[in-house]
Structure formats: structure tokens, C-alpha cells
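fyi for ur records
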Amino acid sequence: MEKQRIVYLDIVKLFTMYLVILGHTIQMMKNGWGVDKHVWPMIYSFHVPLFMLLSGYFASSKSGETPFLPFVAKKAKQLLLPAVTCTLICCIYLFFTKAHPGYRDEIVGNSWFLKTLFVYYVIFTLLKRLPFDDWTLCVVSCAALFVIPGCSSLQVNLLFPYFWGGYMLKKYNVFEQADSTWKLAMVFAVLFVVLYGLQVYWEIPNYIEINYTSLQTSGHLILYRYMVGFSGSMATIFVIASVIKCCGNNISNHDITKYGQWTLGIYVLQTVIVVNIFPNFSWYVESEFVLDVLIAPWLALGFLAICICLIHILSKNKILDFLFFGGQYYRM
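which gave:
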């Protein structure tokens, strides 16, 4: 029996993937990293935490009862295989288009989110086998990743609390028990605006590497960034849930809900198209207003549509679906 989808969370995933593409579009059109002072940093303050929170939300509470090796093999096929395919394509493209391709950076950083998520699933299923309650496992595992050397690679220690946060939201049925989603949407939206506004005012960076030293010197800033990330994530979820609730059942069977199940495929394809190919044909836009409001949002929407069309095409072939998407979309 097919598992019933949570429509508004599918929409949240699709919207968050649009934000990923929008952020990359702005980044590539400014010929640099983080030079945009308005939309780009706001997107990056919560969109990856939101994705990781959603991933944790759908993590099974019975992970500890699942046979370990088959579980790891399944997740490797779903997450690592598409990452390897994407990396190989991007390296081949760089070979033909760049005089000095940065293969090492590409191999390490390409599809980094999928690699980090794979690590989380492995850690999580091992933790759930231990005879401790979830809160103990959450606190101890996050604290351990904070201080173990090397865990800041690919933001492994930074994002794990969001993964656990999503799992806890599911465990306690927070979304299902929320009666007034629009009130919660307003509360979290205002909270995010205030917290993010203060972050900008105090010039707190979006990314603070977490290690033993930074916890001592910038622990309060790290905690503040978690408050911003969680509030932005919750605001997005409740705002979209409120909109879907107002629409009733009109959107339940719409294709847009299916596209929310294709976020892995969209992520892989946009890595090739937007992050690697697009910069060779992009141009520098001096005005941030023109870029943020008139150009980048529409380009990002176009890239999203292209990725969806490519998934339609590639997923019809079993081998291509296996290589690009871990075999998740064939005949879907």
C-alpha cells in the first residue's frame, strides 16, 4: 500500500529547492560567493537547515530495528550513487571547458548535501540501536560531533541538530497537532524577521565553523544562528501549510505535489546546470535590485522547470533513473 503523502510538506520541499536554485543563480551571476547583500544571505540563513529538518522529519523511528547493511546499501544507492554520477559529469565538463579544473574541490564539494545526509542516516540508525532515550542520543551525539576534529567538513556537525529537530517534530506530532497554523505562521515569521534583522545588524555571518575553539569563543553566535535557522524553517512550513489549508483539496492531486517528491533529482540536475554550466554563459549584474527582483527569480523558476522536464525524460529509462536518481522515479 502506497504511503500517504503530506501535501504541504511536499510543497515545502519544492519551494525550498527553488530557494536553492535561486541562491545559486544569484551567486553565479555575481561572479563570486556571497557578494549579494540582501536576498542571497537571507536565503542561506535557513534554506539548508530547512531541508535537513525535513530529512529528519521523515527519518523512521524504527531505524534501529532495520538490518544495518541492507539499510546502508539502500541509502548509498539513493544518495551516493546520484552524487557520484553528478560529480563525474561535472568533472568531464570541467575537463573540456576549464584550463585548470579544480577536480579536488569538485569531487569533495559536489552534491555535498547528499553526502552529509548519507552520513546522518548511518549515524542515526546506529544511535537508534543504543539503549538510551532519544533526547539523550540527540544531545550526546550533537555535542560529540561539535568537538570531534574534522566533523565540520561538509557541515556535518553544523546541520545534525536540524536533522534531530525534524525527527523530534515528527515524534511529537507537532505539525499534526497544530490547530491554528496561520497563527503559528505569523509568530514564526515575525520571530524570523526580528532575529534575522538583528543578525544583519550585528553582522553575524551565516556560517560559523563549529569546533572546540569556536564553541569557546563564539558559542553565543552559534546558538543565535540556530535560532535564526529554526525560526526561518518553521515559518516557511507553517506559512505554506496555512496556504494549502486555505486551498483545500484543490491542490492535493496537482502535479506540483509530485514535483515535491523529486527534490533529490532536481538538486542533482541543478548542480550540473546552474552551478557548473550556467556560469560560463552568465553575465554580471551590477544592480542588486535588478538581479534579486527582476532577473534571478525568473531564471531560477526556468531552471526549476528545466530540471523537472529532464526528470520526466531521464526517469523513463531504468538505467538512467538508477544512475541519476538512485532508481527512485522509474514508473513513478
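The CA atoms of residues 5 and 300 lie 26 Å apart. thats all i got for now
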